[in-house]
Amino acid sequence: MSATAFSARYRTAFITGASTGLGKAFVDMLLLEGVEVWGTSRDAKRLPVRANFHPVTLELGDGDRAEKEFLSAEKDAGGFDIVINNAGFGAFGAFAHTEFAVWEEQMRVMLINTARLSHVALRQMLPRGRGALVNISSIAGEFGMPYQAAYNTVKAGLSMLNESLMYELKDTGVIVIDFRPGDYRTDFEASVRLPKQSAALDANNKTRMARVWAGFVQLMQSGPSADHAAASLKNALLRGKSGTVRTGRFFQAVIGPFLARFGSLAVRRRAQEKYFGL
Predict the structure, then answer these.
(1) How many contiguous H segments (helices) and E segments (strands) does the chain have?
(2) Tens digit of pLDDT for each residue in 194-223?
């Protein structure tokens, strides 16, 4: 399809976490396709100054304010045809040896408040009988990463939210895309929080954590470019159907889902241990 055909279906889009990584790649792709984009960041100065792009300051940690900012942007746009919930952050640490407030914040910001934006977005789309809600989940929702327990929990929760909505929104004209990226070369690892660990953390765990972290960084730095993910999302939007999109390197996008479907839990866990050098 040409850019004209794409923008004939999707005129406006709202994207959280638009200043870096996958969010920025989604912005670039949509602008190139002729879509007018409203993109968010906690600091609007980090957002680009571009034609047909509207910067929005949004703190996803404040659910009430985030909803108000969304509705204000939605009114300005005259309705959003695409809403992409992409914003979030990583936190790496041993679950029991990290203050629970770290995990609680991650789940509130990335699951509860993302669900809240999904809720308000759908309330605007359904009366119009059209629209695409895209929640950025992760392969980590199926294959949990060691020492990122809350991130795995959030992403699995988003996938189940998406799954439920696909049933509920059937035949409404509104589609839901459960977008599950793997490791992409986005510098995400540089922004992952490394909270202080308790003094009770033993030497064996410290060694394993260091090995897993090194493997995680290597995988992120050697992954495909963010443009690859944007192309996958573009294709899903052009199909115009609800569904799950797994994207990333071949192992994550093809082999991993095959193991998830046909392999036993024991096989999956052994594969994960080998993947992360445990």
Answers:
(1) 12, 7
(2) 999 999 999 999 999 999 999 899 888 989
Residue 267: count other Cβ atoms within 10 Å of its Cβ: 11
DSSP annotation of 144 = P
Cα 74 from Cα 26, distance rounded (Å) = 18
pTM surpassing 0.90? yes
- The count of residues in the chain is 278
Q: What DSSP character marks residue 51?
A: T
- Taking CA atoms, 51 is separated from 32, 88, 252, in Å, by 11, 26, 35
Cα(19)–Cα(22) distance, integer angstroms:
9
Residue 2 · residue 18 · CB < 8 Å: no
State which residues form the domain around 75: 3-275
12 forms beta bridges with: 36
Q: Give the 3-state secondary structure of residue 173.
A: coil
Tell me if residue 177 falls in helix, strand or coil: strand
Q: At 245, phi and psi to the nearest 5?
A: -120, 115
- Write the CA distances from 66 to 37, 57, 60, 88, integer angstroms: 17, 9, 6, 14
Residue 196 maps to which CATH number?
3.40.50.720
Say which DSSP state 47 is in. S
Check residue 248 and give left, alpha or beta (phi > 0: left; psi -120 to 50: alpha).
left
- Number of domain units in the chain: 1
- 3 pLDDT above the threshold of 90: no
DSSP 242: -
